[in-house]
Amino acid sequence: MRAWTAPDVPALPRAGRPAPVLVHDSTTRTLVEAAPGPTARLYACGITPYDATHLGHANTYLAFDLLQRAWRDAGKTVLYTSNVTDVDDPLLERAAATGVDWRELALEQTELFRADMTALRMLPPATWTGAVEAIPEVVAAVTAMLDAGAAYRLDGDVYADLAADDAFGTVSGFSREEMLALFGERGGDPDRPGKRHPLDPALWRGEQPGDPSWDGGVLGPGRPGWHIECAVIARDGLGLPFDVQGGGADLLFPHHEMSSSHDRFLGGAPRAHVHAGLLSYQGHKMSKSRGNLVFVSRLLGSGVDPMTIRLALLAHHYREEWEWEDDALRAAQRRLDTWVKAVTSTHDDGEPAGEVLDEVRAAMADDLDTPRALAAVDRWAANPGGDADVVVAAVDALLGVEV
Ligand code: ZN
Question: Mean pLDDT over residues 164-188, rounded?
Answer without folding.
Answer: 96
